[in-house]
Amino acid sequence: MGEQRMTCMQPAEPVRGMANLALRGMTLAMLACGGAAQAQTYGTSNVPMLTPSAASMDTDLGVGGMAMTMPAGHGTTPADVQGAIMVPAGKVMVGYSYMNMDMAKNYIGDSTVSPETIVTTIPSTMTMAGGKKENYRIVPSSMETQMHMLKAMYGVTDRLNLMVMGTYEQKSMRMTTFSGSMGTKVLGTSNSRVSGFGDTMVGLLWRLYQDPENHLHLNFGLSLPSGSITQTTTMLSPSGKLMTMRASYGMQLGTGTVDAEPGLTYTGQLHAWSWGAAYRGRFALDDNSEGYHYGDLNELTGWGGYSWIPGVTTTAQIDGSIQGRIHGADPLITGLMQGTNPRFYGGKQISLLGGVEIAGSRFGLKGTQLAIVAGGPVYQNLNGPQLGRSWQVGVTLGAGF
Description:
The protein is mainly beta. Helix content is 8%, strand content 53%.
């Protein structure tokens, strides 16, 4: 499953007006909350799901999250928003997404800290002779996560869609090792990499409301534990030896748990303008086989878009989320590297992203869609020390049948 190697989310007319006002009010409230909430990922295994959105009107196919082109009046959504578009009964949509996220700099709260500060002031879970806790001596300096995602959606009815998504992940981390049990002398650096299949998502998308301007969808998914949580990695020890051990929580390919993923997505459109808001949660239902589960994750997104010409739309969005620490611990994930401590996961984050969606119909490829999104954090308050996000970029290609 995985390999490792060392590399050193129509009513009648009298009601419609009131519903429009209510939906707009809800959008403003969600946008306001999105500015107040912040995010951290499931150990980088729960990065935002990238899903192309609809930017033209050449077909009525679309996918909530993997949106293609939208029915008339349906607003365009950014590439990393789930649950926005639905396919009609009997229709199928497939999509491929690639995501690259870079992490750098260590945070404690909202402040960055140097590796030297970590190795001289932060005690590990390891005990030296005499009962004193030894400080961490191996500090990650950067991490890169690449994800390849295959997704499909099927319209059971016009109001109910089924979704499934599988992932393949590649993670690499660069670490700095300090010599001995104290001091700030750098011994050397090492690089580790893991790769393999991640967790699998299955879900339902239910249309709660729609009119020519507004659409409201409820989605519920389950994340199934198909990704490995027993990956190993090799790193340079403070004594100068290479040691192979179980990889830290953030370097595992999955969570090992069945997670509930509820969500609610609103979209709106008026002429060339589009807007929307979305909520997505992720909640582990129990501990995994190794004795732990990730903390609850809550995410809010708000966005706006403008179609400059038919089939080409740009979007701007703000993402905010908050996540708790890991609960429990894997007894085999231990050592003098900060990522082995389950307390050093989770936190708060706000990110700004921009994107573009291009309909394939402009190039004679009706029913296809290309979406690109990129951005980075403007605020991070993390349960550190832990690496913070630096930037992320995603590309998605979808096709409807």
